[in-house]
Amino acid sequence: MSDVHYYQGLARSMMFTIILVSFAPLFVVVLIAGYQYSVAYEEKVEAHLRELVLKHDQTIDAYLDEKMAEIRVLAEVIDLGHLATPGGIEALHDALTVGHGTDFVDLGLIDEHGIQVAYSGPFQLRGLDYSREPWFKAVRENTVHVSDVGLGMRGVPHFIIALRMRADGREWVLRSTLDFIAFNRLVENIRIGETGMAYIINREGEFQTTPRRDMTAEAPFLRELARSLTGTADQVHGRAAMAVMDNPATHRETIFVTSPIKGGDWLMVYQQDTADAFATLNRSRDLAIGILFLGGLAITVMAFLMSRRMARKVERADAAKDILNEQIIEAGKLASVGELAAGIAHEINNPVAIMVEEAGWIQDLLEEGLSRGDNEREVQRALNQIRTQGARCKEITHKLLSFARKIDPTIMSFDLNDLVREIAELSGQRAKYANVVIETSLGDNIAPIEASPSEMQQVFLNLVNNAIDAMDPGGGDLDIITRQEGDTVLALVTDTGSGIPEANLSRIFDPFFTTKPVGKGTGLGLSIIYGIINKLGGTISVDSAVGRGTTFTIRLPAGKARGADGGEGGAEAPEA
């Protein structure tokens, strides 16, 4: 728990969790709202473009219908005989100019042979033969005809409205050239953004208005577009057709909106790059992404700072917990020493009694005098006995003080069997008074373990004391077994006591849980054992039944195996 890498990993884990919990809802909200806004905005733009094209389509159709209606009115009210004279057609043209401005550029009367017999306008076109012109052939078949835009004989773009009339058994054609510039301006007014523009093409894909830029390279593509969009379901139902496709000339995705005019002979086309059409949407999207990025950055910074702060608090709490655990273990160890006090006191009392008896015997011999009989040799024997019993007391107290000293958590390699023998010897006197027989069955050549010897002393002493308590006062057998299974060293502590009720088995390792009478136990022993074993990467389990006894099984990772000479695999167990 004190490893710096652990707390760094904990801080990263908390930071990623905070980022995920905080950023995920923000991301989902922005994603859903952005998608809904995008769909609504695109639908709005598409509807606006369709409406725009249809309105201009209607405006242009109305413009052409108006001009054709005016020509029809003229045909009904004029006298063809007067119109065929130069003065008559000029007077009519002047009247049209006064009433309609420059919409009607010129006016001409053509006979059935296609010869223009009367003309009024800025050009010298009287006497020209129009019999081979497509518009003349078309008007012979239809009463009124609006031609395509072309250069014609005058060499400038224009288009003609022609009306077929009959008088005195002859057919006449009244022709007028409409102002192309004014007509072109009607179409050019459809302009949105930087790339939006409108133009008119005929069925062959030929331009009937002048686009804002050179589109010669796009003519084949527009012909295909005209064929693909003409007669679509949208146009059949009076709606503008829309298509989004890559423009081969500009290599950009482009929106095309088309609508037929002039009875389907012409096609109104509006085109605009999608990036331009959805510029506002793209800016909003970029703004949302920017806000999302800044929000994510702020969340990341705050998560980083908060996670580091929380990790430091956890580290301090763990340090405090380690200190508390150490104090609890120390307290538990002292409590165990208290339980051993009676046995230790009796074990020390025997050599002390011998020493007192020998000292009294020496005093008696001194009173008789050392020169008598074997008194000097007997005094020497008594002194040796006092020295022997003093050494025995010193060994007992040394073991007790060694066990009772402050817990040393230093990890080292040692032989578990040596520690078990020491605990069995230390607990022998108390077991004797409780009528408990301690037996050890220690495996040969088991690998050393990596642990704190003083903490492992605490583990086994608590288990032994609990077992003796469970068999008091009737007594019983206590077996301590060690063996090795693969890379694991096992230690089993088995008693023939009263056993543990099944209802308590799941709680025996809980702190402060005890079934002993008040004042006989703290409930910390098994909790301390569990913490020590778990810290070493091992496990402890219990198998018990009422009336059958209890077995605690400890599994610890094995260290390096000892060699034949016993030198490898760690240092000797420290003297207790």
From TrEMBL:
<feature type="transmembrane region" description="Helical">
    <location>
        <begin position="12"/>
        <end position="35"/>
    </location>
</feature>
<keyword id="KW-0547">Nucleotide-binding</keyword>
<protein>
    <recommendedName>
        <fullName>histidine kinase</fullName>
        <ecNumber>2.7.13.3</ecNumber>
    </recommendedName>
</protein>
<dbReference type="InterPro" id="IPR005467">
    <property type="entry name" value="His_kinase_dom"/>
</dbReference>
<dbReference type="Pfam" id="PF00512">
    <property type="entry name" value="HisKA"/>
</dbReference>
<dbReference type="Pfam" id="PF02743">
    <property type="entry name" value="dCache_1"/>
</dbReference>
<keyword id="KW-0808">Transferase</keyword>
<dbReference type="InterPro" id="IPR004358">
    <property type="entry name" value="Sig_transdc_His_kin-like_C"/>
</dbReference>
<keyword id="KW-0067">ATP-binding</keyword>
<keyword id="KW-0472">Membrane</keyword>
<keyword id="KW-1003">Cell membrane</keyword>
<dbReference type="InterPro" id="IPR033479">
    <property type="entry name" value="dCache_1"/>
</dbReference>
<dbReference type="InterPro" id="IPR003594">
    <property type="entry name" value="HATPase_dom"/>
</dbReference>
<dbReference type="InterPro" id="IPR036890">
    <property type="entry name" value="HATPase_C_sf"/>
</dbReference>
<dbReference type="InterPro" id="IPR036097">
    <property type="entry name" value="HisK_dim/P_sf"/>
</dbReference>
<dbReference type="Pfam" id="PF02518">
    <property type="entry name" value="HATPase_c"/>
</dbReference>
<keyword id="KW-1133">Transmembrane helix</keyword>
<keyword id="KW-0418">Kinase</keyword>
<dbReference type="GO" id="GO:0005524">
    <property type="term" value="F:ATP binding"/>
</dbReference>
<keyword id="KW-0597">Phosphoprotein</keyword>
<feature type="domain" description="Histidine kinase">
    <location>
        <begin position="343"/>
        <end position="560"/>
    </location>
</feature>
<keyword id="KW-0902">Two-component regulatory system</keyword>
<feature type="transmembrane region" description="Helical">
    <location>
        <begin position="287"/>
        <end position="306"/>
    </location>
</feature>
<keyword id="KW-0812">Transmembrane</keyword>
<dbReference type="InterPro" id="IPR003661">
    <property type="entry name" value="HisK_dim/P_dom"/>
</dbReference>
